[in-house]
């Protein structure tokens, strides 16, 4: 694993995204140190985006530490990769924290009496969003990115404030990639400050940068995975989720077992039982893209009855 930070600037243009990201990190470092003497808290899964983010932090020479949320549903190969990287960061003198979940995904589903849906992502809140004492008041630095957009550079603002939507549909979770991402965000609810230095990077920027600096990425990308994260995440498309469940079938089995538990936990709910006779049926319904799109009235009824 190559952690050499030497960098040949000769091949990069003046406004290369990495140069801009580094300037941004150096610009906010004083404020970050004022908030926490450990510097920025780099929130990382060690997927491709957060790997690039970490490399930029080290190149920028800004003070920072690394924090990783254990979700319990990440691909095993990503977990091994993350562990090896964290050891390497510690060897370089950086602090690292692994934050354990309070409730597993399976416990959360039984508590909420449903599998997570795109419109009801209770798992993100608990597995990735929960304020961690390890982070304290540090500025969070994240590898989230906006979706590619032709005029994205024209709309660029360096310092922006997150406005939460009133109807819940415009809420951007900290780990989401969305057109609404900004370079600097402040969450009024939790008084968190977040710097997203690669918010405007494209996929090509990420891969070009990794190649240019010789940054090792998780081996799963070589198998054709384009995004790494929670296995079976409802935010992904069905084809991608099926690919994940074929690659790690034990997670599919666990989702089906959990779906069965959800049904069995409330045996007197006839409405729900009419809709799903088994955990497998519930799981099959949950896997459909259509199900995960805007819930129609009938689907919402199921949950309202169930709650
Ligand atoms: S990324 Fe997906 S599966 Fe993971 S916690 Fe968030 S919504 Fe749930």
SSE topology sketch:
Blueprint: H1 17-35, E1 40-43, H2 48-60, E2 64-69, H3 76-91, E3 96-99, H4 105-112, H5 122-127, E4 140-142, E5 184-187, E6 192-195, H6 203-213, H7 238-247, H8 249-265, H9 270-275, H10 279-287, H11 289-292, H12 297-306
Parallel strand pairs: 1-2, 1-4, 2-3, 4-6
Antiparallel strand pairs: 5-6
Helix pairs in contact: 1-2, 7-8, 8-10
The structure holds iron/sulfur cluster.
Q: What do you see in this structure?
A:
There is one protein chain. A six-stranded mixed β-sheet has the order 3-2-1-4-6-5. Helix 2 links the parallel strand 1 and strand 2. The N and C termini lie far apart (49 Å). The N terminus is likely disordered. 29% of the residues are buried. The protein folds into two domains: 197 residues, HUPs (Rossmann fold); 70 residues, no CATH class. By secondary structure, the protein is of the alpha/beta class. 42% of the residues lie in helices and 8% in strands. The structure holds iron/sulfur cluster. The site of iron/sulfur cluster has 10 residues, from helix 5. Iron/sulfur cluster (SF4) binds next to helix 5.
Concise synopsis of the structure shown:
The chain is α/β, with parallel strands linked by helices and 307 residues long.
């Amino acid at each position: 694993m190559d952690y050499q930070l030497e960098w040949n600037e000769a091949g990069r243009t003046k406004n290369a995204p990495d140069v801009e990201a580094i300037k941004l990190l150096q610009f906010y470092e004083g404020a970050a140190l004022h908030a926490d003497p450990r510097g920025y808290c780099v929130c990382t899964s060690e997927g491709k985006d957060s790997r690039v983010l970490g490399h930029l932090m080290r190149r920028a020479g800004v003070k920072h530490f690394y924090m990783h949320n254990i979700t319990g549903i990440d691909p095993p190969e990503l977990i091994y990769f993350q562990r090896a990287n964290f050891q390497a960061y510690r060897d370089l003198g950086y602090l690292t924290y692994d934050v354990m979940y309070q409730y597993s995904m399976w416990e959360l589903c039984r508590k909420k009496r449903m599998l997570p849906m795109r419109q009801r992502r209770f798992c993100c809140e608990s597995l990735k969003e929960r304020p961690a004492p390890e982070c304290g008041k540090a500025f969070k630095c994240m590898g989230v990115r906006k979706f590619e957009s032709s005029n994205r550079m024209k709309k660029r603002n360096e310092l922006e404030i997150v406005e939460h939507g009133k109807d819940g549909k415009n809420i951007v979770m900290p780990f989401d990639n969305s057109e609404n991402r900004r370079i600097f965000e402040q969450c009024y609810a939790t008084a968190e400050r977040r710097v997203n230095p690669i918010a405007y990077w494209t996929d090509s920027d990420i891969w070009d940068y990794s190649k240019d600096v010789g940054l090792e990425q998780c081996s799963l990308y070589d198998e054709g995975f384009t995004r790494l994260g929670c296995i079976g995440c409802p935010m992904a498309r069905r084809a991608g989720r099926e690919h994940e469940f074929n690659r790690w079938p034990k997670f599919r089995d666990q989702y089906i077992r959990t779906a069965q538990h959800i049904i069995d936990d409330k045996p007197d709910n006839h409405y729900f039982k009419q809709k799903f006779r088994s955990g497998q049926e519930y799981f099959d319904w949950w896997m459909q893209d259509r199900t995960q799109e805007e819930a129609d009235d009938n689907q919402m009824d199921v949950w309202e009855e169930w709650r």
